[in-house]
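ok trying again, last paste got cut off:
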Amino acid sequence: MKLTGARVDSFIRRPDPAARAVLVYGRDGGLVRERADALARGVVPDLGDPFRVSELTPAQLSDDPARLADEAAALSFTGGRRVVRVRPITDALAELFQRFLAAPAGDALVVVEAGDLAKRSRLRLLFEQAANAAAVPCYPDDGVRLRRLIEETLAGPGFSIEPEALDFLESTLGGDRLATRAELEKLTTYMGSERRITLAEVAACVGDSSIITLDGVAFAAAAGDLARLERTLARAYLEGAAPVALLRAMARHLQRLHRAAGLVARGDSADAAMASLRPRPHFSVADAFKRQLTQWSVGRLVGAMEIVLTTEIACKTTGTPAALVCSRALMRIARAARRADTAP
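nice, full thing came through this time. structure:
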């Protein structure tokens, strides 16, 4: 069976008894593991129980195809239903699972984990179309879903968060569910007894390396430094940064420049304009931020922000690879910055 939208969460909480095997797949490896663990824990609360949980690798199944049915049919010495986990698999094992689903042995729940699978993947189609199986997609959290995850995770231990701080978290997290939870746990630990989270605390604590990478991309683009932008973009993608997170970091940087540029246009000094920002630009990038104020006019910044907005929409709607669309937009902004910097 094919699961989408709200049906996914409902199935994770209460799986269809007819499903003998469940494929959990997607780009978000952390969410894949979290959902696979939740499904397995619904049958065996202690996932470390060697009598009720069996772990198989693709190599083991390739060497001994009968192993899957044997493990699914095995009885636990301590009683109770068993779980068989297989990870990580690809289409190479589609035929093996097709035979298993045609005549499933025993009553164990088979939980299968995989990476991102195309719509025409044999494995994905098999689990989507079989009446006794289910396919659970796992895409990176973004938008309303990411915002809700952050709010619910923080509200559990009694924290509240300022809207600007929540926006900041939404723009930097979401590429991997487990990484998101780890960053939020680090933030709550950092807060100690204080229960109101502000932007300053988030900027000081969450995702130090990832935020530095995202901000590095934004600063390079706004400075018109094409070579540095290429390097920081490559690093960001290597670290798993989502294109939408990069665009939102760019948007946040442009908005701060726009706010400061507006004050400068009104007659304030660049230093005074920067001091009004919350949080203020870190001393390590203050000079770079100040130089960018001389490169960009208020009107040109509005144009750059429009590029970011239309690009984020394109990433979500056109079907074109999001990383490619994102990179092109950032390069476009960098070239605009270079033209502004060399204008007489």
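cool. The beta strands are 21-25, 53-56, 83-89, 109-114, 133-137, 160-161, 196-197. The chain has a mean pLDDT of 87.
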